Inverse folding.
């Protein structure tokens, strides 16, 4: 089973893209939707297969990104109105975005991990 990140920018503001989101959910055995335009799916399909399956739901100006995920990443959730209250997420912690913490490529995670350490120094 492979894990893929699917992200998109959609050209038609206010348009109902429920066919696209429904197709994403049907692509694999499991999925997560941790951010507005970001999906993570577990599937036997390839990136080309995923692109082909979703292309028919897109119009001129839409953008689609599909990438196989890795194992290590770090992220941060800064609550609105409370910038000093940060919640760090890494591949070694359990959090609501645990799936996201497993799929971004290692080279991205290394850079983000250093930034996360500096940004959260002194926060418990």
């Amino acid at each position: 089973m492979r894990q893929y990140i699917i992200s998109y920018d959609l050209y038609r503001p206010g348009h109902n893209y429920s066919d696209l989101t429904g197709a994403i959910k049907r692509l694999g055995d499991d999925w997560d939707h941790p951010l507005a335009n970001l999906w993570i799916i577990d599937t036997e399909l390839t990136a080309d297969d995923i692109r082909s399956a979703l292309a028919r739901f897109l119009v001129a100006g839409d953008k689609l990104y599909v990438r196989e995920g890795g194992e290590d990443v770090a992220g941060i959730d800064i609550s609105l109105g409370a910038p000093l209250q940060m919640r760090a997420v890494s591949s070694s912690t359990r959090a609501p975005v645990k799936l996201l913490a497993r799929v971004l490529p290692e080279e991205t995670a290394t850079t983000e991990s250093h930034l996360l350490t500096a940004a959260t120094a002194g926060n418990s």
Observations:
- Helices lie at 18-25, 47-55, 106-119.
- Residues 34 and 97 are 6 Å apart (CA to CA).
